[in-house]
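User: Sequence in, structure out. Go.
Assistant: Echoing your sequence, followed by the structure tokens.
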Amino acid sequence: MNSGRYILDQVIDLVHRQTLDRYVQRYNAEMKVRHFGCRQQLICMAFAQLTWREGLRDIETCLNTRPETLYHLGFWEPVAKSTLADANGVRDWRL
């Protein structure tokens, strides 16, 4: 039954927050990133997989079309393509 939450939010809730935090510490994933956390990257990549996005520009455009949705998913500012590229390049792929 619909509880008023977005589907992406319900999918992300399947990832236990403490487990994600444990992996972030194990792989030292937030060492070189200032404001774009691993959970936000996970949300962006899950969105890309669920909606069949083809590139970073496509992900950025689709996420930023509804800023109120981004706020409810935990983003305080619009997602930039360069931020996604930097996060994907710096972080360990096992995370």
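User: And one key feature?
Assistant: Residues 7-90 form one domain.
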